[in-house]
Amino acid sequence: MELRIAQSALEDLQAIQEYYKEQDVPHIGDAFVAAILGHCGVLQIHPDAGRVVPEFNMDHIRELIHAPFRVVYLRQAKEVMLIRVWRSERQLELPANET
């Protein structure tokens, strides 16, 4: 199964890197992003590995937890699309065209 990254998730990952860069520890941001993407690799083989996102309760909107982040993705017939990467304590909002 193909793993794709939506623009919204890409911007989230870039924001993570930028935050750690501003804290003068850019290597931490790079490591977090690499680890998050590595963790998401499991979705290519096991697209149901994440749980259904409680806020939406829709089977195709799922999340993997990579503390302290939650990676929200859409499970589709032939691909998995990462759509958000947010800190766990934030209120989840999805772009209107991503659901």
> How many angstroms does the end-to-end distance come to?
19 Å
- Secondary-structure class: alpha+beta
**Strands of the biggest beta sheet: in what spatial order?**
1-5-4-3-2
Q: How big a fraction of the residues is strand?
A: 25-35%
Helical element count? Answer: 2
CATH superfamily: RelE-like
CATH architecture: 2-Layer Sandwich
Could you say what the CATH topology is called?
A: YaeB-like fold
Gyration radius (Cα, Å) is 13 Å
**Average predicted confidence as pLDDT:** 92
Main sheet record: 5 strands, mixed
Q: State the domain count.
A: 1
Question: Percentage of helical residues?
Answer: 25-40%
Q: Please give the CATH class.
A: Alpha Beta
Helix and strand sequence: EHHEEEE
Which runs of at least 5 residues are low in confidence (pLDDT < 50)?
none
Query: Quick one: overall form?
Result: globular
Oligomer: single chain
Tell me the total number of β-strands: 5
